[in-house]
Request: fold
Amino acid sequence: MDIFIIEDESIATKLLKRLIVDIDPSNNIVGTADSVSSAVKWLKNNPQPDLIFSDIELSDGQSFDIFEKVQLNVPVVFTTAHDDFALKAFQVNSVDYLLKPVDRESVEKSLDKYKSLQENFRNETGDVLKSLITTIKNENKQYKSRFLVKMGERLVSLTNDQIAYFFSEDKLVFVMTTESKKYPVDYTLDELDQTVDPKRFFRLNRQFVSNIDSIVSIHNYFNGKLKLTLKPHIEKEILVSREKASSFKDWLDR
Reply:
């Protein structure tokens, strides 16, 4: 098979090339790249290989940037020196990972995996890579931990622990604190939904983004909806739509 290697350490590149060819002399290393920019250039100007081995951390960025800039339907085996959260995301049909330093056994397993599931790789790799990149970006994203709000001439800094929920009212958006204090905020709910930590906050509906600790009770409602009670209490009916109910339950059960 034709294999392309993306690796910014020359020693690691030589080792990987040797292992791949030793395992099967018919394997053909069609090219190598040592950066995001050089990989993008090569992939745009050459036929797609059968398989890519790619380090994650490169000299000019992460290899995920490559797969956002080049449309590929090629399985990727990522190599990394860090056994962290991301590795779980790599254990999917069209993506594998190797911990550095790589050895013959791990490389051989990855090659065997590709061969046994070759047709699936061709059909699903594009979607899997997109999903993986989204997962990694979300995990690495820095979410706001404080919000500066204004009450008259006074500025107040609120931490996530102090925020019960955000809600809209009369075309304005407010934050309700755990101490039942209400402050206006200079964000739309759509902006807040992208700014707050999704592990702690959930967009319940068009009017509410709630902290998980502020959800007091959940009741089944008609037509598959859920009815919630929040603290501090607010005189509004708070419903989660049938379409959102499943993802809401998954969020609570993480």
Q: What stands out?
A: The CA atoms of residues 140 and 186 lie 25 Å apart. The mean pLDDT is 85. Residues 118-140 form the longest helix (23 residues). DSSP finds eight helices and 17 strands in the chain.
